[in-house]
Amino acid sequence: MDEHMITSEEAMRVMAEADLLHSAEDVAAMLDRMAVEITATLGDKTPLVLCVMTGGVIVTGHLLTRLNFPLEQDYLHATRYRGATSGSKTITWLHKPEAALVGRHVLLVDDILDEGYTLREVARWCREQGAASVHIAVLADKQHDRRVEGIWCDFPAIELVDRYVFGFGMDYKEYWRNANGIYAVKGL
Ligand SMILES: O=P(O)(O)OC[C@H]1O[C@H](OP(=O)(O)OP(=O)(O)O)[C@H](O)[C@@H]1O
Question: What is the pLDDT of residues 8-30, one digit of tens each?
């Protein structure tokens, strides 16, 4: 068993003890607002929306149904936590988009901006590929002073306290990405 894995019984206990920070209704309202802001900025730019897998999959799906303008969709997979609750400083690319980025207005969509290593590297790579612009949208923008230099967020849906969170795409040791809301792990 992977050192970071927990049993489904432990996963049940984590959920039972967790604090609900934002309900599904809160999240929906914040995504509505985010979609309006993205539309104002990118609605006439036919952006290429890139989902940052795995965590970005749920927010990307919910967001896309709120964007009523022409866009293209692709995905990438970059990871640095790999099931742990603290990450390495370097990211591992597991998949790069098929779509050409040259001259495109790219919108990166991810679940959480935490220390920022992941999105900083992904954004740097997009620019290196020739993107005309790179915007970043995240469901959760965690508030603390450990952010790396050179990262930004154009469209944060929710500002979060500095706790380890799960739900709506975010995992606790690979569980509960499916939780319909944002929860904080007890004690973390
Ligand atoms: O701002 P950072 O401190 O870099 O952390 C945020 C990143 O960490 C998580 O991905 P993870 O590495 O867990 O990959 P996964 O989505 O495939 O689980 C999350 O989905 C973000 O991409």
Answer: 999 999 999 999 999 999 999 99
- CA nearest ligand 1 atom 5, residue: 114
Which pTM was predicted? 0.94
Pick the CATH number of 8-184 from 3.40.50.720, 2.30.40.10, 3.40.50.2020, 2.60.120.200: 3.40.50.2020
User: Sign (positive/negative) of CA torsion 174, 63, 160, 97?
Assistant: positive
Q: Residue 187 has what pLDDT?
A: 87
**CA distance readout (Å), 26 to 30, 143, 179, 180:** 6, 18, 14, 11
ipTM of the complex as predicted: 0.96
Q: 115 in ligand 1 pocket by Cβ < 6 Å?
A: yes
* Spacing, Cα 25 to ligand 1 middle (Å): 24
How do the domains of the chain map onto residue ranges? 8-184
* Tokens at 120, concatenated: 């900083």
